[in-house]
Amino acid sequence: MLPAGFQFSQSTLQDYVDCPRRFQLRYILRQAWPGVRTEPLQQHERHMDRGVQFHRLVQRHQLGIPVEQLERGLDEELAGWWRAYLGFDLLHSMLGRRYPEITLSADLSGARLLAKYDLLVVSPNQGITIFDWKTSLKPLRREFLLKRLQTHVYPYILARSGGGLLGTEISPKQITFCCWNTAAPSEPVIIQYSQEQYQQDESYLSGLLAALRAEVERGPAVWVLTADEHRCRFCEYRSLCGRGEVAGNFEEMDDFGDEIDPSVADFGLVDVEEIGF
After folding, report:
1. Comparing C-alpha atoms, which of 181, 127, 128 is closest to residue 154?
2. Inter-residue contact 181 to 140 (CB < 8 Å)
3. What pLDDT is recorded for position 155?
4. Residues with Cβ within 8 Å of residue 243, at least 6 apart in sequence
5. How far apart are CA 257 and CA 253, in angstroms?
6. What pLDDT, in 10s, does the model give residues 199-234?
7. 103: which of 59, 92, 217, 274 fits an S-S bond (Cβ 3.0–4.6 Å)?
8. How confident is the model over 42-69, as a mean pLDDT?
């Protein structure tokens, strides 16, 4: 059974879509396993740590802390990411209210969905842009992002619950999703949401949650393993599942749909302050 109070996020749902067995091990059985996701481990950990620092820098900047105060003591790579962010004119020229690092939630099919946004910008014309910061090693691919749960969960929850934050109903067509990556800062991927996409997302997410609940109700049987064994190279459970013992190379991680995104929390038990409606 899922733990009491379990809440779904794009990250937990992505685990289920990528590999039902990984979801079962991670969230139902809460299996501790010593495998590392990638090698060399230290390089991976340094990159993840810089990603966390970068998200904090952007959050503080959006809260109004002066640039000269924030950029003291940055290492060379982090300073390069920071300069690229400061040159992101689409963001900095945008007028409107800003909500950095805010969490919204919505109920769907008896489950609670959470989304933690890096930044929401509400423009004077009531258009709302979701900004998401990525620090993955390779440029973003639009076709890859369109297949990811985040691209669908984030706008969907904003359309469902953002009205409580803004004090007015939000139409899906007012929502834009902008994904910006340090690897290609001049090439953000911008996706316009729509009423049609909203309805498709609601249907898909409802079906996904129903399938997951059916899996849980079947009891302790081993859930299906992913058919894409390349993913197993970047999974800490690979040896437990008999899918090899050697971790994948850190520099190849993005190729298999596991982009490094330290801003995304694996929401499980309630541990965040949220706005829910």
Report:
1. 128
2. yes
3. 98
4. 225, 229, 232, 235
5. 7
6. 999 999 999 999 998 999 888 899 999 999 988 988
7. 274
8. 91
Q: Hey, what's the torsion of the CAs at 67, 73, 79, 81, to 10 degrees?
A: -80
Indicate whether 30 pLDDT > 70: yes
- Give the list of residues 6+ apart from residue 28 with CB closer than 8 angstroms, or none: 1, 2, 216
Structural domains present in the chain: 8-276 (3.90.320.10)
What DSSP line would sit under 231-248, residue for residue?
GGGG-TTTTTTTS-SSPE
Q: How far is it, in rounded angstroms, from Cα 75 to Cα 176?
A: 33
Q: 259: closest CA among 143, 140, 131, 153?
A: 140
Q: Which of 27, 49, 66 is nearest to 215 (CA)?
A: 27
**Whose CA is closest to 180, among 143, 228, 130, 106?**
130
Whether this model's pTM surpasses 0.85: yes
Q: Is the pLDDT of residue 270 over 60?
A: no
CA distance 65 to 100: 13
Could you give the 3-state DSSP secondary structure of residue 2? coil
- Which residue matches tokens 């609940």? 213
Whose CA is closest to 254, among 104, 131, 136? 136
- Percentage above 70 pLDDT, the chain: 87
pLDDT on residue 254? 63
Query: Which of 277, 6, 13 has the alpha carbon at shortest distance from 153?
Result: 13
